[in-house]
Amino acid sequence: MKLSIVTTLYQSGPTICEFYRRAIEASAAITDDVELVFVNDGSSDNSLELAIALCDSDPRIKIIDLSRNFGHHKALMTGLCYARGDLVFLIDSDLQEDPEALGRLYERLSKGDCDVVYGYQPKRQGSLFERITGGLYFSLVDMLSDGKIPRNLLTLRLMTNEYVRALIRYRDREFVISQLWAISGYRQIGLPVQKRPARTRSYSLSRRIEYVVKHVTTTSTKLLYAVFYGGLGLFSIAGGIIVFFLCRYLFFGVRVSGFTSIIISIWLFGGLTILILGIIAIYIANILSETKRRPYTVVRRVYRAHDKAKLPAGDTAQAPSTGRATG
After folding, report:
1. Cα–Cα dist 25/19, whole Å
2. Quick one: angle between helices 128-144 and 205-219, nearest 10?
3. Contact predicate 137/214, CB 8 Å
4. Among 90, 122, 133, 228, which residue has the least CB neighbours within 10 Å?
5. Tell me, what DSSP letter sits at residue 127?
6. Alpha-carbon distance 82 to 315, whole Å?
């Protein structure tokens, strides 16, 4: 059995060496046949140099150097494209999640009744503001998304190769990886895992808001239909009021004041506009998801021990969703 450990590097200089040591030690209790796939997501510190030094001393390491920062989720998907193991262990390299949790995940997966074992926080960590906003985020996602995701989900997960191959078949160009994990199906079981506090905050408040908006707008059609039915309802109410005032005028001679007629007209045409925009938005959303053909990422170079050239063409076929530099 071969085990692939996949992680991303972004400002990971302070933790990469310890992560490597602990991940190797954790995997040794399971198998000697292991590979480590590091994806450098445009890190501006010395993460790449440290990873290359480790690669020179350990042939089990493979480094995927992206041409720029593409984002955590796209970097994770790129790493999964290069994983060759029968089992794939996905984890962040910042040591907020303990690599030693691999043993617990493997023990649960070995029971044979699931294809994925993932980690989640039994209780959300962080300040009061982070806990409240985190709870609101998951509530909003549950309400608006087409499918629910486990609360307080972590990157940490152990997956079968069959599941990973199914996961990387998705061609979404704008995505939230937790939603892809969920809609890929298979048998998935969660284990409670404690997450250590972050040494540095990697997501600013504006970045978190952007993440929430992206999650809702890339995973939800409910929002579009809510706009559509909201416009339809507003238009119907305005139409009913117009019929009411028109009948009252025709049968009882009660005139309508100018202010009332203006407000009704605004409601009528406002509702009609929202209705039309809702219809168009549904079509645009479908067209957008079908016509985007940008790669997840662009790989600048692939490093292996004693081989600083790019990965041979036969190996690049393992990452069909990833664009590559040709120079």
Report:
1. 10
2. 10
3. no
4. 122
5. -
6. 8
Q: Which residues of 64-91 are buried (b: 16+ CB within 10 A; e: fewer)?
A: bbbeeebbbbbbbbbbbbbbebebbbbb
- Tokens 């479908």 -> residue: 286
pTM metric for this prediction: 0.69
Round to whole Å and give the CA distance between 241 and 14. Answer: 66
> Vertex 81, ends 77 and 84: CA angle to 5°?
130
124-130-131-137 Cα dihedral, nearest 10 degrees:
-100
162-181 tens-digit pLDDT: 899 988 888 777 777 777 77
Tokens 């040494």 found at:
199
User: What are 103-132's pLDDT values in tens digits?
Assistant: 889 988 988 888 999 888 877 666 666 666
HEC string for 140-171: HHHHHCCCCCCCCEEEEEEEEHHHHHHHCCCC
